[in-house]
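Retro notes, item 3 of 5
We never archived the inputs for the magnesium ion complex last cycle. Fixing that now. Sequence and ligand:
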Amino acid sequence: MFASDLDTTIEFLKGVGPKRAEILQKELGIYTYAQLLNHYPFRYIDRTRFYKINELNPELPFVQVLGRITSKETIGEKHKKRIVAKFTDDTGTIELVWFQSLKWVDEHVMRGKVYIAFGKPTVFNGSYSISHPELENYPRVATATGNLTLQPVYNSTEKLKKFNLDSKGIQKLQSYIIDQYLSEVKETMPAYVLEKYKLVNRREAILNIHFPKDVISLQHAERRLKFEELFFIQLQLLSNKQFRELKFKGQVFGTVGEKVNTFYKEILPFALTGAQKRVIKEIRTDTQRGVQMNRLVQGDVGSGKTVVALMSMLLANDNGFQACMMAPTEILARQHYHSIVSLLNDDLVKVAILTGNSTKKERVILHQQLESGEIDILVGTHALIEDKVIFKSLGLVVIDEQHRFGVEQRAKLWRKNSIPPHILVMTATPIPRTLAMTLYGDLDVSMIDELPVGRKPIETKHLFEGQRLRMFGFMKTEIAKGRQVYVVYPLIKESEKLDLLHLEAGIEQMRYQFPLPDFQISIVHGKMLNKDKQYEMQRFIDGKTQIMVATTVIEVGVNVPNASVMIIENAERFGLSQLHQLRGRVGRGAEQSYCILMSGQKLSKEGKVRLETMVRTNNGFEISEIDLELRGPGDLSGTQQSGVLDLKLANLVKDQQILYEARNTVIEIFQEDPTLTLPKNAMLKRFIDKKARGIALDKIS
Ligand code: ADP
Ligand code: MG
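Structure as it came back at the time:
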C-alpha cells in the first residue's frame, strides 16, 4: 500500500513537537497520525444538557451551565494569584476560578457577557465553583469539529496531563488531524460487506467516533468500528485455520475397528449421553478428512470427557496409530491413567504412563516400547514433550486442561511427526460462546453440555461466619454416614503469609471439633513436598481420613467419589469459575452431594452476585456467562496471555450479535473465495499478507 500522510510521525502534527511526541509514544504507544486517530474516546459528555446552578451537586462529573459573568477580579499574590469571576443564572451564583493563563483570561473573559461554562463543579463551604472552566460564547457558532453536542472524553495519564495533553488537549490534536487529513482515511472492508450489514464507511465512522454529529451518527460509527474490529480478528483466526488445513495433512482414521467396537459394545458399563455421542461423531468426521483436526472439547466437570477421549484414542489405535494424553499435573496424569485403565479391559490395548517421577529404568523401557509401537496409549505430563520420547506413529494427542499448555508446547508435539497428529483439547472450564469464538476461533469447538443421567445435582448453601457451628454439625452428620469432606482455603500469592495463618488456624479449629482417634484429617497445600502431598492425598482416597483440608491444589485432579461435601472457606475471595471447579470435586458418586460456601458478613456487590449464582445454578456454561459479565474477558481464567482480547471498542458481552455477524461474514468469504483471490477481496488479502509479515492493522488502513 502507498504511504499516506496518516503515516506521518506524530511529532510533526500541529501542536505536538518532539517532547510531546515522546510522551505520546511512551504513554499511549502512539507514533503516527493514524495511531492517534485510532485512540478513540472512551465516553462522551452530553453537551445539549444545561444545568441550572441550583441543580449542581458534588456527584456530577462535567456539567455545562449557561450564565452571565457579573464580576471579575484578580486576587492573591505571586503563586497564589488567581482570577475569580462570579457567574450567575436565574437560580443562583457560582465562582469560576483561574490559576493559570491569567493574562489571557483577563483580556478575553468579559464582564457582563453571557457564556456557556463547562467543567467539574466542586463544593466548598456549601458554595460551588468550577476551576479552569472552558468558556464558550453563546449562542454557539458551528464548526466542523467544534460545535459539539457530544464531547469526546479521551483516556489520558498524569504525564500526558503535565504536557497539556489531557482529554481536551487530545481532542484538539484529533481535530487538527481530522480537519486536514480525513480524506486520507482509507476503507478497510469490502463494499459488499458494508452494504450487506448497512455499515457506514470508515471515513464517516472515524469522524463520528471522535466528533459525533448526534447520537445516531455515534451509534453508526461505533457499530461500524466494532464490526471492523471483530471482523479482522475473525479474518485472522479463520485464515490461520484455512492455512493450516491447506498446509498440514492429517492422518486418516478411515475405519472404526475392533478396539472401538469391543469397547463400546462389550466393555463400556453405561450408555453414552447424547452430547458424548455427538462429540464423538464430530471427532470421527474430523479425523476422516485428511486434514489435521484441531478441536476443543468443553464440558463441565463430570460431563464425561474421559470416555470421549478414550474412544478417540481407541479410534487412532484401530487405524494403526498411537495416541497420547497430556495432563497439566502429575496427580491428574495418574488419575487419568487409572480411570483409563479401569475403564478398559486388560488386554484391549496397552496403556502406559510417563511423568517427571518415572525412573530412568522405567523410561528406557518406555522409550523402547513407544518406538516399537508396543504401547498404544501413553498418558503423562510435560515429560511427554521431552525430546527423547519418540513414537512409532503418533496419530492423536489429547490435551487436558487447555490453558495450562502454551501454544509453543503444543507445537513441540507436532514436530514429532512429519504428518502432525490430530489434536483434541479438553477443558473443564466452560467458557461463553463469544469468548470461545474469539479465543479459540481457529479451533473447532465441541460442547458436552449434558450430564450423565441419574446424577443428583449438588446442593449449594451459603453460610456466614456466624453459622459456623451449623456447618460443623452438618459435617459430623455426613461423616457419620460414612462420607468424606473437603475443606478448601484460599492461598493467594499476594496474601500468602496471612492465608497460611488462616489455614493453620482453620486446621487447629478442625482438630478441636474433630478429635483423634475417631477423626482423621489429611492436610494438603502447595507449600508441601510433592511426596508428602501425595501421601496425604492417598490416605484420603483410600478412605483412611474423613476430612481433607487443602488449598486450591485440589482444584484439578482428585476424584474421590465417596467425598460428598465441599466446604469453601472465604468463598467470597474466589472467582466464579474457580468456585465452580472446586464444587465439581464432589457429586461424583451415588450419594447426594453438598457444597457450603462460607463467607464473612460483609460482601462486595460482586462477591454477592458470585455466591448467589453458585447457589442458584450448577450449569458451568451459565456460570461462565455471568463470570464474563462480571469481570470482562481479560480476567477470565485461561485468557490472560491472549492478546486477542485487547478489544478497543467491541464488548464480548454486549456485542454478541455483531460478533456473530462478523464471524459468519468471514466464514462466507472463505467459502466463496478460500484463497482471497477475487478482486472484491483484494484488501482482505493484503491485510492477511501484511499480518503474516507482522504489520499492525492501523498501519494498513
Ligand atoms: P470429566 O472428565 O468430564 O470431568 P469424567 O470423564 O471423569 O468427567 O466422568 C465422570 C464420571 O462419570 C466417571 O466416573 C465416568 O465413568 C462417568 N460417566 C461418564 N460418562 C457417563 C455416562 N454416559 N453415563 C454414566 N456415567 C458416565
Ligand atoms: Mg476429567
